[in-house]
Design goal:
Strand order of the largest sheet: 1-2
Structural class: mainly alpha
Shape: globular
Number of strands: 2
Number of helices: 27
Distance between the termini: 56 Å
Helix content: 55-70%
């Protein structure tokens, strides 16, 4: 039990008295030494047993994940040896393809132990074997004739680095890894360029980059004078553009042609999900000032966004929702894009804008998390249009619920207006769908749905009146008068401004309306 291991453990507890009598283990350090030795022995001798490797590394992960146990383990000679001899020369399981998924867990545990040392003086020595792999790859002058063993080395290296990166939970540890890894990112781009249609290579590379961009716990916090965030995103953009352009070049009618006996998910959709997650982490991380790129006419952001959206929208709508992991990545990215760059969404080409709105509608019928994200996207897009056409009301209404940066020049305004009006029937269908969901379905996100319902009503009040009349007409004659009266409650004490007060009041009115009509309405 982990409760018996750690700095705060009583050294002479009853458990250790019994262990000392039976096994000669006097305290928790002696027990830890035995456990670590057993783990190391198991992964050395049972490299061909997935069950043994998985169980041993699971125990190592549990111990390394505890604050007290990790600080205790770092004092052991066995752990010191493990941190200096951690490659496949010592642990053969690292070279077995069947154990490839364990590499990330293995190096994540080792990195947690490494970073448990306050001085982190062993970092360079620990990373040296991984650096030698990079050096070996760079010396090969990678080309189409490069042996397949090199591709496997890239995949394994990225799995190892992903585990190490996931263990970087502090600013200091992250900066150590960033300074070490950044000079090798161009080599990873070369690998993506060469093996772009080999998911065994691209997936580990992209998962590493996803983790590298993830600002969990605020670990990515560069100095004010540092250009690290800018150069990092420029490199990520280059990798994304390189990959997306090559994959799109394989497309026939918007669908990637899969070679060999692979499936479409492994060859394209999984990587698309990673690309979307990369951009979402970059946008949500708060460490990149994207305004710098437009200020200096650097196209790395629009280029990365353009190719990633094209890659994502090349997926058939049915496939997008069929693969749940990809759908979650897509709608998470679309939500962060609408929250931070709604102008960019609104100024896409007409075809792309229409596809995005269609995707928003499709997401409303998906699982709860995706449905909630789709509601946010619909509200943001429609709210931006309403604000653009009623700017005076938005500025004069006090606190505004969203920050909209729609450019007011005539060209931008006309483009946005053209997009919205060209898809007005689609927006009307979204309002109809949401209104029916909150009325007749077991809607678990009424609050989220109420936001776009209100903005869509302001977008086209005539359609909502028509929708209300259809609802009234579908009810028996004796239920129509109370329904008319209850429908009037929706707009009680509400003006046509999209400010916080009106939004909250409409949400409150909608809850009351649903509770009231739910007693008698006929589906």
């Amino acid at each position: 039990r982990q409760v018996y291991i750690g700095d705060s453990t009583m050294h002479r507890s009853l458990a250790y008295e019994r262990l000392e009598q039976l096994l000669g283990l006097a305290d928790y350090m002696a027990v830890l030494a035995v456990i670590v030795h057993k783990i190391a022995t198991s992964v050395k001798l049972w490299s061909d047993s997935d069950e043994v490797i998985g169980t041993a590394l699971g125990l190592l992960a549990d111990l390394a994940g505890g604050y007290n146990s990790a600080r205790a383990m770092i004092k052991l000679d066995a752990v010191s040896q493990l941190l200096t001899q951690h490659t496949s020369q010592t642990f053969a399981f690292l070279d077995r393809q069947s154990n490839s998924r364990h590499r990330t867990s293995y190096y994540n545990s080792l990195a947690k132990l490494l970073f448990a040392d306050e001085h982190i003086h062993r970092f360079d020595a620990f990373m040296l074997p991984l650096q030698q792999v990079f050096v070996g790859l760079s010396s090969q002058q990678l080309s189409m004739t490069t042996p397949a063993a090199s591709a496997r080395a890239v995949a394994g290296l990225c799995r190892d680095l992903r585990g190490i990166c996931a263990a970087c939970i502090t600013r200091r540890s992250y900066l150590l890894l960033f300074d070490w890894l950044y000079p090798w990112l161009p080599l990873l781009q070369r690998c993506v360029e060469l093996w772009y249609n080999e998911p065994a290579v691209t997936t580990p590379v992209f998962k590493l980059l996803v983790e590298l961009l993830y600002n969990k716990g605020g670990r990515i916090n560069f100095e004010a004078h540092s250009v690290n965030a800018i150069v990092l995103f420029r490199q990520i953009s280059s990798i994304l553009v390189c990959y997306a352009n090559r994959m799109l070049s394989l497309s026939a009618g918007g669908v990637v042609v899969v070679s060999g006996n692979g499936n479409l998910y492994e060859h394209k959709y999984k990587a698309v999900g990673c690309c979307l997650t990369m951009l979402a982490h970059a946008v949500n991380g708060g460490y990149i000032n994207f305004g710098v790129f437009s200020l200096y006419a650097d196209k790395c952001w629009p280029d990365a966004l353009d190719v990633t959206l094209r890659l994502a929208l090349s997926m058939p709508a049915d496939d997008l929702l069929a693969y749940v992991k990809v759908a979650r990545s897509f709608y998470s990215f679309l939500e962060c894009l609408c929250n931070n760059f709604v102008e960019t969404v609104c100024l896409q080409e007409a075809g792309v804008f229409g596809q995005l709105v269609h995707a928003v509608k499709a997401g409303l019928d998906a699982e709860l998390a995706i449905s909630t994200q789709a509601c946010v996207c619909a509200d943001r897009i429609v709210s931006a249009y309403v604000y653009a056409n009623n700017a005076a009301a938005a500025r004069g209404g006090g606190s505004v619920s969203v920050s909209v940066t729609i450019n007011r020049d005539s060209l931008v305004a006309s483009t946005y207006k053209t997009h919205v009006l060209a898809n007005i029937e689609l927006f009307n269908s979204i309002l109809s769908l949401l209104f029916k969901k909150v009325l007749f379905d077991d809607c678990q996100n009424i609050y989220s749905a109420s936001r776009p319902i209100f903005s869509l009503i302001l977008l086209n009040p005539e359609h909502f009146n028509s929708l209300s009349n259809q609802l009234i007409g579908s009810q028996p004659a004796e239920l129509r008068p109370p329904l008319v009266k209850d429908l009037q409650l929706l707009n009680a004490d509400i003006s046509s401004k999209l400010d916080t007060r009106n939004r909250d009041k409409f949400t409150q009115n909608l809850h009351q309306f649903i509770n009231q009509v739910g007693k008698y309405i006929v589906a």
